[in-house]
Design brief:
The complex is a heterodimer of chains A (260) and B (378). With 260 residues, chain A is α/β, with parallel strands linked by helices. Helices cover 38% and strands 25% of the residues of chain A. Chain A has helices at 2-9, 15-19, 62-69, 111-121, 126-139, 155-167, 185-200, 212-215, 235-242, 247-259; strands spanning 22-33, 36-47, 51-55, 77-82, 85-86, 96-99, 173-177, 204-209, 220-225, 228-233. In chain A, the strands form two sheets. A six-stranded mixed β-sheet of chain A has the order 6-7-8-3-9-10, with helices on both faces. A four-stranded antiparallel β-sheet of chain A has the order 2-1-4-5. Chain A is globular and about 55 Å long. Chain B has two domains: 3-42 and 181-375, no CATH class; 49-162, abc type-2 transporter like fold, CATH 3.40.1710.10. Chain B contains 14 helices and four strands. Chain B has helices at residues 3-19, 21-42, 65-74, 87-95, 109-121, 140-162, 182-212, 215-220, 226-256, 264-286, 292-309, 324-329, 331-343, 349-375, and strands at 49-55, 79-84, 101-105, 131-135. A four-stranded mixed β-sheet of chain B has the order 2-1-3-4, sandwiched between helices. The radius of gyration of chain B is 27 Å and the shape is elongated. In chain B, 41% of the residues are buried. Classes of the chains: A alpha/beta (260), B alpha/beta (378). At the A-B interface, helix 4 of A face helix 1 and helix 8 of B.
Chain lengths: 260, 378
Amino acid sequence: MNDRSSDLKGVRLDSQEDAGRHVVRTRGISKAFGAIEALVDLDLDIPKGCVYGIIGPNGSGKTTTIRILNGLLRASSGQAWLLGEAVPVSESIHRIGYMPQEMAIYSDLTAVENLELFAGMYSMRRERFEERADYLLDMIDLKDRGGSLVSELSGGMKHRLSLACALVHDPELVFLDEPTVGVDPELRNGFWEHFSRLKAEGKTIVLTTHYMDEAVRCDMVGMMRLGRMIAEDTPEELMASTGALNLEEAFLQRSRRVEQ
Amino acid sequence: MNARRVLAIALKTLRSLRHDKRTAGFLVFMPLFMIAIFGYTFGGEIENVDVVVVNLDVGSANGSVADMIIGDLASRVTLRLTALSSPDEAVEAVRLTDAWAAIYFGPEFTEQVEEGIAVSALGLFAVPSVVELHLDASNPNIAQTVVTELQASIQVVLVEHYDMNPPVAVVEDRVYGEGAEFIDFFAPGVMGLAAMMVTFMLSIISFVRERSTGTLDRLLTTPVTEGEIVGGYAMAFGIVALIQSTVILVAAMLLFKVTVEGSALLALLTIFLLGVGSQGLGFLLSSIAKNEFQAVQFIPLILFPSILLAGVFWPLEAVPDILRPVSNFIPLTYAVDGCRSIMVRGWGAGDVWPQLAVLAGFAAATLMLSAYSLKKRG
């Protein structure tokens, strides 16, 4: 962890060499909506196999960052790379998954039909899809509800299905925008088990959250405030450097320091 | 374009419809309902229309022209005549809806007719003799029938007995559609209208939902292209429009004995193009609407001009001059005109290609604009 964080602040590797290690890389990306600066000069280097948490209050630029990375928004300036390819990616798009903040699944389709639609978007073969669907439905504990209409599922089940839809093509890099907002603690715990499993498979996860207790479980945390990255390190380092007992306090201290 | 992905989008969209039983039922029964209503309202030949007659004509040496006209009317079943003795009584009968119309012949009717004929034989202006007709025009079809019947009888009698046309005569020349009933005219209009309404409404609502639930954003982060999404939707809704117009066509043929003079397939192709274009239009407007409720506002905006000005129920000739340019901008105008020409006039692709071209252009333009509107990112 430590050498990775020193790497962040130290020498910049060129993007060719970098691609293998840093699956997400941005240089000076900014985004303005009219007079509002949603994102200011963001540099990110997220290494492979990392669970990276972007934390910050509402309006701090978390979602804007994710949407620029996955191509839904164009940065006003700066450049980003995913898996070594400049954003918006085309080749690498097959290797990237995205779970939006909204549930973003079709409530008038069944759970399996939702998975099948997204599998279709990635041109997955039938056999491969069936294998994946079995695996994912098992993972999200919806094995016996695969044929149920989404509108008949509980909120938690829908959340789990939404995650499964982001993972159907077995992506190497997954963006999860507030994956656990409005999710009960037990289910959140379950989600983190899935994240650990993905990490163990060598996947990289970039997620946004405003739950500090969740941020602690990330390998690396970027604290955002008013469109700016105000601190970035491991949760342990962030707490240690501010002398705070928890991340929330660390965040508040950093915020105050920026204001001064 | 990846065919597999287009199919996946189309499949998903059709599946959504299948799961929504009410919508699926609506899709099939709405057109049935429409053709039934319009068919029963306008489809049958009109018979036994109650009409009261007041004949005060005293006649001449040659007899009474009014008697002959009434006799001619009575020889057919279209009007059911009842004789009354005073004009006021007759008008009252219409007012009380006991009769659809009152026909009144004045005492000098025959005299005036003979005078008029003599004057016009000299090439001079003849004062027309007057038959008063008091009409309940609340049903335009019945009103039209009464007028037509009366004029026909007047003409028959005058031509038979005086070898002359009456001073006022309506000459209708039908190149096509001889013997066609109203339903033959309405069936193509209803097919076009139903296809347009349903594809437009489904499309605008579906896309507003795709946007508001975040599924569209999610799709756009996958390898699927904007064109593939639009193409998949167009395929699904085009199929819906086809199924619908087939239901209407078959119902019209079985229930109302509508005959298709030209190619039914060509008529369905016309409707398909209209359906695809209408879904594209719905898509475009959905990008302006923020939610379902706003989307619903667009529906009457698009539908009412189409219903009123596209020649579905009233001929384009009945559209006021000032609105005629609007008619020319409504795609439904071309679909109804094309479909009607195919089904009633028996025209082929060689005759209706201009209409087909306009509809194909409409479909292509809305689909391309839709895909472009998706590509535009903030």
